Amino acid sequence: MTTLHSCEPHFVRCLVPNTHKKPGDVEPPLIMHQLTCNGVLEGIRICMRGFPNRMLYPDFKARYAILGASEIASSGDNKTAVYALMDKIEFSRDRYRLGHTLVFFRAGALAFL
């Protein structure tokens, strides 16, 4: 509990440490299996790459068009429209990347929008 209170966890996952219900006994293969099946390891990999949040272009444009409707409407090309909007609101390009179908955001970047 001290570790949890000393950091800012995004979620807490309960794991079964062993199959015998014996306190203090840990079975590492069992724990790794649970982390893999629950998707925790994949989530950590995505976060370590730096852009854990993503949004489809149509969803992004619908949600944030209020910040710059003219910029969104000015181009039929998704990337150009999103770049124009982000430049208008002075959103740093270090906080996001544009893919073929998705806008990728660094952790915490969506809170600034």
Supply database-style keywords.
7 helices; 47% helix; 10% strand; single chain
Strand content: 5-15%
The strand order across the widest sheet is: 1-3-2
What profile does the largest beta sheet have? Answer: 3 strands, antiparallel
Number of helices: 7
Q: Please count the beta strands (DSSP E, at least 2 residues each).
A: 3
Radius of gyration of CA atoms, rounded to a whole number = 20 Å
Q: Uncertain spans, ≥5 residues at pLDDT below 50?
A: none
Shape: elongated
Q: What multimeric state do the chains show?
A: single chain
Helix content: 40-55%
User: What order do the SSEs take from the amino end to the carboxyl end, as H and E?
Assistant: HHHEHHHEEH
Explain the overall architecture.
It is built from 7 helices and 3 strands. The protein is mainly α and 113 residues long. It has a 3-stranded antiparallel β-sheet. The mean pLDDT is 86.
Structure in a nutshell:
This protein is mainly alpha-helical and 113 residues long.
Blueprint (SSEs and pairs):
Blueprint: H1 2-6, H2 28-37, H3 40-49, E1 53-56, H4 57-64, H5 69-73, H6 78-88, E2 96-98, E3 102-105, H7 109-112
Antiparallel strand pairs: 1-3, 2-3
